[in-house]
Amino acid sequence: MLRPRAVGAPKLERWALIRGQGGEGKTALAGELARWLVRSGQLRRGAFVSVETHSHAAAVLDTLGRQLAGKTYSVAALTGPDGDLEQAILPIERALAEQPTLLVIDNLESVLPPPYLAQETPQALRDDALEALAAILTLCDRLLAVGDTRLIFTSRETLPAPFAAERRCRELERLAPEDAVRLVERALEGARDHRPGTADDATREAIDTLVEAVHGHARTLALLAPSLRALGVERTRARLADLMAEMDRRFPGSRERSVFASVALSLERLAPANRERAAVLRVFHGGVDLDLLRAMTGWEQADCQALAEDLIRTGLATADPYNHLTLNPALCPYLRGRLEPDALDALTGRWVESMGQYVAFLEQQRSRQTEIAATLTVLGLPNLLALLDRVQGAGEAEVTIGITTSLYQLLQMLGRPRLLARVGQVRDTAVQSLARQPGDGWTHARFEAERTRIEQQASGGRLREAFAGAEALLRHARAADESAYPGADYDLAGACWLLARVLKTAGGSERALPLLDEARQRFETVERDKPGCGAERMTSVCLGERGGCLRDLGRLDASAAAYAEAIALDERRGDARQAAVGKSQLGTVRLQQRRYPEALAAYAEARERFARLDEPGTVAGIWHQTGMAYQDSGNPEAAEDACRRAPVGAAPPLPPVARRTLHRQPRPRPRPDPGAPLHHVRRNPAPDRDPAAALTLFPLPGSRDWARIPCRLG
What we know:
Blueprint: E1 15-19, H1 26-39, E2 45-50, H2 57-68, H3 75-78, H4 86-98, E3 101-106, H5 123-144, E4 150-155, E5 169-171, H6 177-188, H7 201-213, H8 218-223, H9 225-250, H10 257-268, H11 272-278, E6 287-289, H12 290-297, H13 301-313, E7 317-320, E8 324-327, H14 331-336, H15 341-366, H16 370-379, H17 381-394, H18 397-412, H19 417-435, H20 444-459, H21 463-480, H22 488-505, H23 509-529, H24 535-552, H25 556-572, H26 576-592, H27 596-612, H28 616-632, H29 636-643
Parallel strand pairs: 1-4, 1-5, 2-3, 3-4
Antiparallel strand pairs: 6-8, 7-8
C-alpha cells in the first residue's frame, strides 16, 4: 500500500487506513510502521498528528508544520484575514516536495462522536464535526499530491471520500491468539508463584478462555494485569465472565462491549472514594471542568483533584488547560446506565443549574480573558449544546433566550457557523413562544434575542436586515420606557450603541456619531444610578467606537483623542484587556497619521499587555501590524523581522480566538453622504476587527467563586 511510487502512479495508491475499535492498538501499529519505514530507508522522515487533540484543519496544519517546516512555523502568522490557510500550506508543501515523507493522521474518529454516543449528541455538533472532518481530509488530499508523500490514517470508522476506498483499509479486529496469550503471560510474570514458560495445560486453557472472553481486545487484557497478578488466571477469568455477561445484557449486539468492559475495569482500579465520586460524571458529556464539578457537588478542592489524578492515572481522562478534563468517550454513557431514572433526573437538575452558572462565567471571561473563554468553550461544546437541548425541551421561553444569548456570544468567537445557526434557531423559536404569551412580550429576554439576531445578520453581511432590525430595536426600547422592567435603561443605551455599530460597519460612521454620544450619556447615567452594573465599561466602549468612526472619516487627531480617553477610563477601572485593545487601535491611528515612532511604541505596549494576558494569537497579529508600520516607514528589514516574530504556539490546538488578528485598517476614504440611504453607502471593505467589539450587556462579577456568579437560568 505504501510502496515507493512508480512513475505516473496515482496518489490514491499511497495511503492506507488502519481501522479498529478503541484499544486494539491502531496507534501503536501506525507508529511502529512509520519508524520501520524510516529506519529501512524507504522514506526519509515521518510526521505525526493526533486529531484527538488537534481537531480542526488549522491545528493539524500547525502541528505538521512544526515537524516539517521548522519549530518557528506558525499557522497564526500565516493565516489570511478570513481564515484562509493557503499561505500556511505552502511551506509544508515545499518541505514535502524535498524528500519522501510519511504523514500519520491518528484518531480520526475523535472528530465524530462514536456510534454509542451518536443518538445523544446534538445534531448541530454532529454536523459541525462532519464539516471539520471534511476540512481535514481535504487538506490531507492536497498534501498527498505533493512529491512522494504517503499517508496512514487510524480510525474506528470508515472514512468518507476522498478516502473511502475499502481496499485501502486494513481491519485490526483483535490480537492474534499467540500474541494475546503472550500478553497475559507477561502480566503473570509479576505473580509470586509464576515462572515464565511454566504454565500447565489447565492454566493455558484458562488463559485461552480469558482471551476469548474479551474477544482478544488488547486494552482490556492490559487492564487485567493487576487482577492477574493478584488473583491468578482462573479467578480473574471468573470475574471477567460475570463482567462480560453484564456487558451483553446492557449492550446487546454492540461491538463496543469490550470498550465498556475496559471502562469497568479501569473504574475498579480507582480508589474506593474516587470510584464513588466518579458516579457523578454520568450527567456530563465527554468532559468536565473541575471548578464546575466542585461547585455542583460541594466537594473540597482536594477531593476533586484526587479524583482527577486517579482518572488520569487509569486512562479514564486526560488533562486539558484551565483545570478541565476530557473524559474517556465511553465513561459517561457507561455510568448513565448504572443509575435509576429518578436519581439520574435529580442529578441532571443539579447539572443544569451548575451549567447555567458556568455559561455565565464563560461569558464574563469573554471580555476579560479571551483565551480562557475560547479554550473552555471549545472543550465544553458537548456539555454546552446538551444544556441547550435540555432548556429548549423544558419549554421555558425566557430561560431559553437567556442561554441562547450567552451561547451565541461565546460561539461567535470560534467561527462555527453551523453551531451559531442552531443557537439562532432555538432562540427564534423561543421568541415566537414568548410573543404568544399574554402581554406585548417585550422584556429583557426579548431585547436580548433581537440583539443577538441583529449581530448575527451584521456578521453575515446582511446589513440591510441588520439596520432595519437595529432601528426597530431602538424604537421598541424607546417606547418601552426606561422603567418598563429592571435593566430597561441599560437596554435603551445598548440599543443606541448597536444601531451605531451597524451604521459604522456599513460605512455610515457620520450617522453613527450622535448615537454613540447618546449611548455614552445613557450609560453614564445608569452607572451613576446603579454603580457596578457594568455601564462604566460600556462608556469606555462607546468612546472606542467613536474613535473608530472618526478614524474612518479621516479625522485622525480627534480619533486619537477618543482612543486615549477610552484607554484612560479602562486603566482607571482596571480593565487590562480593554486598555490593551485601545493601545492597538491607537497604534493604527498613528500609523495612518504616518507618525511611525508613536505607532511602533503603541504596538509594542499593546503586545506587552496581551502577552501578560496570555493571548499569543493576538500578540502575533500585533506583530503583523508592527511589520506594516516598519514597511510604511521605509524599513523593510525590520518589517520582515517583525512578521517572523509571531510567538511559537500562537495557534493552539483549539480553534479560536488565538487566530484572530488585528488587521491593517484602510487609508481614509471619501466621506459618505450622511443623508444617503444605508444601501447606497459602500460597506467598509476591512471592518474593524476589535476583539472586544461585540456588545457585552450586564457584565458579571470577576470571580470564579461559583456561588457568587448569578445563575442565568431564571
